[in-house]
Write a sequence for this structure.
């Protein structure tokens, strides 16, 4: 089967669900999220059938590839979207509170449908090998995410988050297209695979404009993966956006940004003149992102904001591996880290959605005494925090171990030393949540009821964290 | 007869004006206009590069399809962006960046 079929199936599913929503009178829109998740699960199953890239010579062959990286991250995106969709039914009371409509449930349905279009955009993004395709799929995902981040349009925080996301997202769009125009201007191609040969033919004088273009594209990608100094939108947007959207932003959209970055750097790594300069820049970015993300997270009191800074910190660890792309194990390490990161971050957000719905806020103090009110939720959060901090027998530990290993292989001893310091800082702020759950008195004692969907998500994501942490071999072999 | 350099300087100026507007102006509408200016700058340089061909000297029209994509994406971005700004104005009666201070730690 042609690999494009997967993305087309996702887009068709989204359009069909939009039509169903438009003609349906049901007030309870949960069925849209469940149908979407089931449809995406079908696509996920389909992705295990033998696939091939578009045939050579066909119009899409120059734009779409089919390799280990794209296969892995297409599935990654699908799973992240399924988890996000399953979080939405639990979030519905918040949506209905901030979206007063004449008809019960009016204006709520699209919240469960738009993630499908983001998913299609990200799936295209991870398989694209041409700047034109990268740009178009990136915008499909980003513009849809603007709508999702602003979805609670009567909530000041969501509006503000959406506006900031819109302006900074559009700014990064400006950078990426201007960068692409200079890369095209010097090399005469927009295809990533044709880039090294075109650069070899360049006269010395054309290298400066080319580097300028590459720098512009790197700035735009740094926005996407929230690398320092382009991370400033992250805490605000993460805090203000609806919780399922925040979790989706921090996992799927960041992973797709990393895949594009890897593809670009792998291609440019074959050109010594450029790769030396880029290598220094990426190493510097990794160090700054590690320092900023971990130390700015320490004083946070809002859980979503804390997870925002934590996501910057994890981008720092991932950039450490990106700086070590010379090692054969670097790409498997990044894929493994992101898979573990999906499980632990999404698990934290699943628990956060339930807790903030019951207690009415996102602050860490809302978790006080959760261990007594709901041992299941507290246990899930404990597992997620332990893995985010990197405690042995969790996916977070193995992920960090693999990344430190490739960094040492490539001689980045300074980065590894810095990584060890920031891991220690990470223990401190993740421990704050654990302390609130088990050592603080709850504001009220009533047990929290947990729906079946949430139990299912906790079981699957928790099993993922432990399974990757104890037996990482199958996941790693999927990436070689 | 204008040369490639003329077009690139014009496009660089447009980009700089856009970036300056985003950094310095305080009204979200103006900031949004400046962002569109940055996209136009990219369009201008893309068309100039494809018409003149910097390295080989050959014309290469492949990339003009990207220009159409950028125009389309900019239109979509404006549609979504203005809707967001309008709902922000309805909720807060302001479109100034200084007034966006709900999210501080």
């Amino acid at each position: 089967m042609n690999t494009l079929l997967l993305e087309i199936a996702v887009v068709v599913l989204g359009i069909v669900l939009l039509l169903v929503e438009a003609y349906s009178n049901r007030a309870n829109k949960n069925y849209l999220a469940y149908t979407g998740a089931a449809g995406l699960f079908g696509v996920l199953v389909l992705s295990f059938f033998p696939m091939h890239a578009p045939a050579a010579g066909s119009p899409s062959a120059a734009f779409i590839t089919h390799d280990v990286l794209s296969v892995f991250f297409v599935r990654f995106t699908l799973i992240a979207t399924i988890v996000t969709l399953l979080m939405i039914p639990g979030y519905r009371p918040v949506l209905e509170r901030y979206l007063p409509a004449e008809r019960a449930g009016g204006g709520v349905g699209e919240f469960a449908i738009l993630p499908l279009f983001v998913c299609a955009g990200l799936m295209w993004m991870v398989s694209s090998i041409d700047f034109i395709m990268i740009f178009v799929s990136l915008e499909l995902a980003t513009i849809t995410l603007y709508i999702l981040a602003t979805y609670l349009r009567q909530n000041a925080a969501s509006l503000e988050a959406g506006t900031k996301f819109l302006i900074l997202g559009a700014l990064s769009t400006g950078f990426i297209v201007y960068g692409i125009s200079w890369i095209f201007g010097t090399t005469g191609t927009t295809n990533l695979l044709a880039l090294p040969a075109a650069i070899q033919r360049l006269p010395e004088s054309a290298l400066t404009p080319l580097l300028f273009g590459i720098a512009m594209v790197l700035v735009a990608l740094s926005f996407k993966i929230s690398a320092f100094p382009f991370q400033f939108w992250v805490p605000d947007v993460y805090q203000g956006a609806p919780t399922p959207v925040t979790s989706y932003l921090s996992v799927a959209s960041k992973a797709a940004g990393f895949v594009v970055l890897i593809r670009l750097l792998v291609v440019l790594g074959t050109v010594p003149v450029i790769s030396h300069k880029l290598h220094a820049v990426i190493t510097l970015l990794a160090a700054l992102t590690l320092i900023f993300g971990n130390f700015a997270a320490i004083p946070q009191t809002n859980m979503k904001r804390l997870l925002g800074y934590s996501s910057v910190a994890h981008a720092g660890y991932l950039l450490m591996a990106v700086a070590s792309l010379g090692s054969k194990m670097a790409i498997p390490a990044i894929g493994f880290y992101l898979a573990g990161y999906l499980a632990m971050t999404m698990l934290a957000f699943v628990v956060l959605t339930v807790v903030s719905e019951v207690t009415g806020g996102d602050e860490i103090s809302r978790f006080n005494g959760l261990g007594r009110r709901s041992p299941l939720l507290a246990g899930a959060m404990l597992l997620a925090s332990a893995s985010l901090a990197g405690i042995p027998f969790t996916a977070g530990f193995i992920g960090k171990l693999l990344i430190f290993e490739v960094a040492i292989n490539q001689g980045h001893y300074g980065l590894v030393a810095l990584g060890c310091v920031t891991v220690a800082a990470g223990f401190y702020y993740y421990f704050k949540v654990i302390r609130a759950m088990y050592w603080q008195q709850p504001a009220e004692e009533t047990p929290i009821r947990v729906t079946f969907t949430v139990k299912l998500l906790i079981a699957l994501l928790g099993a993922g964290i432990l399974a990757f942490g104890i037996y990482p071999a199958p996941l790693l072999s999927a990436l070689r | 007869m204008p040369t490639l350099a003329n077009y690139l300087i014009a496009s660089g100026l447009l980009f700089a004006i856009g970036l300056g507007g985003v950094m310095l102006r305080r009204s979200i509408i103006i900031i949004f206009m400046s962002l569109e200016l940055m996209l136009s700058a990219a369009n201008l340089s893309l068309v100039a590069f494809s018409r003149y061909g910097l390295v080989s000297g050959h014309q290469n029209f492949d990339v003009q399809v990207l220009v159409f994509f950028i125009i389309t994406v900019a239109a979509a971005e404006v549609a979504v962006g203005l809707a967001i700004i309008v709902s922000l104005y309805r909720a807060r009666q302001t479109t100034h960046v200084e007034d966006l201070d709900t999210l501080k730690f």
